[in-house]
Design a protein that fits this description.
This protein has two domains: 1-71, no CATH class; 73-128, no CATH class. The protein has four helices and four strands. Helix content is 28%, strand content 12%. Strands 1-2 form a two-stranded antiparallel sheet. It is an alpha+beta fold and 128 residues long. The protein has helices at 3-11, 46-49, 55-70, 109-115, and strands at residues 13-16, 23-26, 98-101, 104-107. It comes from Flavobacterium zubiriense.
Amino acid sequence: MNKYYLYLMNAIKLKLCSGCGASFNCGNISQEKKCWCNDFPPIFNFSEAGDCLCPNCFKDSCSIKIEEYVATVSPDNALENKAKDLPKTTHLIEGIDYYLENGNYVFKAWFHLKRGNCCGNGCRHCPY
């Protein structure tokens, strides 16, 4: 076998989603040893998430877990939230960090919590 084929076999693994049973690729050949799920917030303990989930089930699970967390945040405790301590990323995820409304980005509470403070612009979903 040629080296490129062996690299591809090691870089991408075919998995079955433990949520819906769909097959999907785990891994990303463009960035060595990095899976697509690393673009999502690191909010799961491995044992809590079970085996790998497909992109759709993973996004849904993240959204649910984030919404449950956001529901516990009030203006009184927002400055001490856990989201601000997560690794910073420039990658925004539609449905988790923002949604589109009439072609405009509307940032969700999770986005604001990750920033760690109020920007003072009167944002609709500001938790501060």
